[in-house]
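Hi W.,

Here's what went into the run:
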Amino acid sequence: MSVNSTIYDIAAEAGVSIATVSRVLRGERSVSPATREKVEAVIARRNYRPSSIARGMTSKTTHSLGIVLPKLLNPNYAMIFTGAYDGARRHGYSMNMFPWKSLTDQRSTPALLLAERRLDGVIICLEYLPPEENERLMRSLQELRQYMPIVLIGCVPAAFEYPTISYNMADIARSTVEYLVGLGHSKIALIGGVEADRDDLRRDVGYRQGLEEAQLPYVDSYRAYCGGTAEEGAAALDQMLSSLLPAHWPTAVIALNDLVAMGCQDTARKRGLRLPEDLSIVGCDNLFCAPYLIPALTSIDTHQQLLGQKAVELLLSGETRRENAAWTLVRRDSCAPCKSGEPAFRTAGY
Amino acid sequence: MSVNSTIYDIAAEAGVSIATVSRVLRGERSVSPATREKVEAVIARRNYRPSSIARGMTSKTTHSLGIVLPKLLNPNYAMIFTGAYDGARRHGYSMNMFPWKSLTDQRSTPALLLAERRLDGVIICLEYLPPEENERLMRSLQELRQYMPIVLIGCVPAAFEYPTISYNMADIARSTVEYLVGLGHSKIALIGGVEADRDDLRRDVGYRQGLEEAQLPYVDSYRAYCGGTAEEGAAALDQMLSSLLPAHWPTAVIALNDLVAMGCQDTARKRGLRLPEDLSIVGCDNLFCAPYLIPALTSIDTHQQLLGQKAVELLLSGETRRENAAWTLVRRDSCAPCKSGEPAFRTAGY
DNA sequence: CTGAAAGCGCTTACAG
DNA sequence: CTGAAAGCGCTTACAG
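Here's what came out:
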C-alpha cells in the first residue's frame, strides 16, 4: 500500500548524497542552483515528503504541541481549541487535542502519556476538580513540566509559578452586577459553579464587591451552586424560586455560562415568568446560539479563539508570565429595566 | 529541561540489554520474572516512557489516525470528532484533527501534508465544494490513498470505490415530508443546501418523493438554496416569503440543519408569524441547544458520535464497504398540525 | 530466556 | 558547494 519513497531513493535517483537532499528539503542555501533543481525535480516527480517522525527522531523537536481540554462538546472549548490550532499552525506547529482524563486518570501515569508523544509543549485548560483529584492533577503538572513547557488556562494558585492566562473573574462578575444595578435591579442572583472552585471563588468575590458598591446586601439564598449544564442550571433556579416567597424572587440572574442561562430561561418560562420583564438573565461564553434564544441572551464574550492563540504565543515564548484575557459584555434582549415593586407572579401556563 | 531517559539508561541501570528492556516494555512473555521485575523497578523509578516517535520509526505503524473536518466550531463536527476520538482510543490509537483546507489548499500538495505524518489511516468528512475545488479534492484523495487507508463520511459518487459511511439523505427527507404531511401540511418548503451538492441532490430526491407519495405538487418557490448558517437560513426564508403572496406561504419548513432552522425561526418571528401555529420547522443534527429554542426544535438526530466511532471501525477493518448511518426524528414543539385554510397574516410586531 | 547487531529515515557536525 | 559517517531511540530477526 505504502508507496513512500525515502530520502535514499531521492538521492539515488538525483545522483547526489542524502545530505544534499536533506539540504534542499530544509531550504538550506548552501546548495548550487543546478543540484537543487535536479533534486527538486525528483522530489516532485516521486511525490516525496520527508517523514516528520524521522525528522522528530533526530532534530529533538517534533513541532507539535498539545492542548488538554475538559470536553470538546462544549463549543466554548471547541473555540479555544480552534484558536490554539490556528495559532500553532501559524508558527509551523501542529496541535494535538487530549481529553482531560489523560491528566487525571490515575491508572496510566498521566503526565507521561503526554510525555510519550514528545510534544514541544502543551496547553492545559483548567477546570474545577474535587480536592483529591486536583491534588493529583497538580502533581501531574509538576511531573509533566519536567518533560516539556506548559501553559495553563484558568485560575491557578499563585504558589505555582506556571505561565498562565486567565480571566479576571472578579472583574467580570463585578461589572455584570454593576450593569444589572444600572438597570435598577437589586435582587440579583448568581447561579452556577462550585464553592471550592478557585475561579468561582473569585467570581463570588466580584459579585459581593459589586453588591457592596451598590450598597446592596449579600443574600445567601441568591447564591446557588451547580454544574455547568442547562439541566443543572434549570434545577438550581427552580430550587431557588421554590425556597423563596415570590415577593423575594430575584429579578436578575447572573449565570455561570450560557448553558446554565438557557436552563434558567427554561425554568423561568415554566414558572410563568415573563422574560425579560420579570427576570433578566446574563450568560457567559457567548455561544453561537445566544442570539437565537428567546429573548436573545445577553452574555459575556470571552473571545475564546483569541485566548487559544495567546496561549500558544505564551507557550512558544518560553516566558513564565501571567496574562489576563480580554472579555466583553454583549447586550441583547435578555436584560430589561427592573420593574419597581414586586415581580408579578402568574401560574405556569407553559 | 528534558530529563527524559532512554532505553539505554534503563538497560544500564538494570544491568540488562536494551533488547530486554524493549521486551518488558512491550509485555513480551519471554522474559524471566526476575529480570522483568528488576527492569520494571527501574522504569518506575526513573519515570521512563518510551518515545512513541522512535517506536513509530521502527515499527512502521504510528498508531495514530487522522480526521479531516470542515470546521470544528459547528458542534455537529465536534460530535463526530469526539466519537472518532473515543473509537480510536478504544483501539489504542490516537486521533489527530486536520482542518478541511489541508486537503483543498492548492499551495501545499494537500494529501502529502497528511502523508508526512505517517498516519495509519484517515477519516474524511465530505462537504460540498464548488466543482473545481471538488475536482482537486478527488485528486487529493486518490493521492492520499496511496499512502494510507481512508474512510469517507458523506456522499461519494459510486464511481469512487472508497469505504464510506453516509446518511441516506433521500430517506431522511422523504420521512420528514411524510411526518409533516401527517400533520396536515401541504405547503412544505425545503431550505438550505447547494444545487450541485450530491448530498443535497439526494435530499431533493427524497423531498420530491415524499411530496409525490402524498400526491402533492412540487412547487419551485418552496425550494430555496443557501449555506448552512443561521444568517443564511434567515435570509433564504425571508426572501421566499417576500416572493410569495401570504396565501401561498409555506406552512412548514424542512431546514438543512439546526442552524438554518434557527435562522428560519428568527425570520418567522420578525414577520409576525406565530410558531409553531403558523409555521412548523424541522431541523437536522439535533444540536444541544435545540431543546432550548422557542419553540423547542424538532430535529433529526444523526447520532454523530456513533458515526465517528463507526468510521474508525471501518477504517481499522480495512474493508471497502459502504455503510449507512442511523438517524432518528426527535419530536419537540416546533411542529404543529396545519391549520386549515390560509395561514393568518399579521403585520410584524417584533 | 537474553544479547549483539542491523535498521527505521532522517539531521548534523566534520571534512574536503 | 558536497559527501561520508555518526547518531536520534527504539524494534526485530538472528544467535546462543
